[in-house]
Amino acid sequence: MKTIENNPFRILGIISNSSAKEAKESETFILRYLEIGKSADLKFDITPPLSHLERTSEIVKNAKRKIHDNFDKLIYSIFWFVNGTMVDKIALEKLSSERNIEKSLDSFKKGSRNFVISKTSFSSILNFSTLEIINYSSHKDEERVKNAIKYKYQIIKDKLVFKEFEKLITLTSNKINHKSYIDRFIENTRGLLKELFPRKDQNKLLLDIFSEDKNILKEIEGQITSSLVEKINENIASFNSFFNLQSKKSDTQIITSKATILNRAKKLMADTKSDLNKLKKIVGKDNFQYTNLADEIYTFVNGAVIMCYNKEIKKSNVGSAPYIELLEEVSKEISNLDLPIKQTIIKNLSVIRNEESSLNCQFCNSGKIGNYTLKVEMHQMTGAYQYTYFKDGGLKILCCFSCIAKRIPLKLIAFLLAPFWWPVVLFVTVLIRQYKNSWYSWLYRFIYKNMFGLSVRNHPTIKNYINQGYKIGMP
Question: What does the alpha-carbon distance between residue 73 and residue 91 come to, in Å, rounded to a whole number?
Answer without folding.
Answer: 23
